[in-house]
Amino acid sequence: MTVSGTPIPILCNLNTAERREAGLEPGRSGFGADSTDHTDSESSHSKSKAKRVRTTFTEEQLQVLQANFQLDSNPDGQDLERIAQITGLSKRVTQVWFQNSRARQKKHLHTGKMKSSQNIYLYLMVTWT
């Protein structure tokens, strides 16, 4: 940043890693390019917030989860606790797996209906011509 051709130093207490976490990468138009005010509390919050490791399910865990999904696609809290204990996963991970599975099931049912509707339409077009 310059004023009348004179460079003005910008003082900042964030190191390079903290700037990356805050989305202020070196080499861009720089700190303060956006209109938001980055305070010390926000930068310390980004320091303490570690990136969550993605859960990888074993074959045995998937078998238990899928078997229970076949029985009940929307288990209550007690059932989630029981399934979590059996699989060794947290209740929250188990809950999210069931949410995602219900969404996948709904998506596949929806796309299946669309395909059958398209097939009927094609059949009618062929038979009417």
UniProtKB/TrEMBL annotation:
Pfam families, alphabetized: Homeodomain
Keywords from the UniProt entry: DNA-binding, Homeobox, LIM domain, Metal-binding, Nucleus, Repeat, Zinc
Any one GO CC term of the record: nucleus
GO molecular function: DNA-binding transcription factor activity, RNA polymerase II-specific; metal ion binding; RNA polymerase II transcription regulatory region sequence-specific DNA binding
Intracellular or extracellular location(s): Nucleus
Region (Disordered) location: 19-55
Domain Homeobox: 48-108
Tagged with keyword Metal-binding: yes
Cross-referenced InterPro entries: HD, Homeodomain-like_sf, LIM_Homeobox_TF
Composition bias, Basic and acidic residues: 35-45
PROSITE patterns membership: HOMEOBOX_2
GO terms (BP aspect): neuron differentiation
DNA-binding region: 50-109
Coiled-coil residues: none
The name this protein goes by in its record: LIM/homeobox protein Awh-like
Gene designation: LOC103514714
